[in-house]
Amino acid sequence: MKPAEKENLILKNMRALGITRQEAEQLIADDEAVDRGEAMPWDLTPEQMKNARKLANATTRKTNKEIKRTKKENPDKQTIIACMHEALASMDGVDTLTCTNAERTIDFMYNDVNYTLTLTAHRK
Prior knowledge:
This protein has 124 residues and is α+β, with helices and mostly antiparallel strands. Among the domains are: 1-40, no CATH class; 75-118, no CATH class. It is built from four helices and three strands; from the N terminus they run ααααβββ. A three-stranded antiparallel sheet has the order 1-2-3, with helices on one face. Strand 1 and strand 2 form a beta hairpin. Helix 1 (3-17) packs across helix 2 (21-36). The two termini are 70 Å apart.
């Protein structure tokens, strides 16, 4: 660094940080030492660095607890499936009629072909 640049940097640091000339010179010397990769007294020890990395990667939300959710029953879907089950039961040619899910599916065989009837309720 040129002497004129160094002097301007010392004055700038003195004004900006409110420090003495000696402190500004020490600041510049320390900055140059850090730029060269020298170890400084305030650097973290290897153990402290390991802990800092561990804490930097920590999550704020723990996901250990399992949340058990219960499905709300939908009486409208149950009614529709029951009506379709009755209609298919009264139809000629329908064999092996089973309601596999009271709110969703009916399995049946018609003319030796297996079918699944699925009811989907769309959101509003």
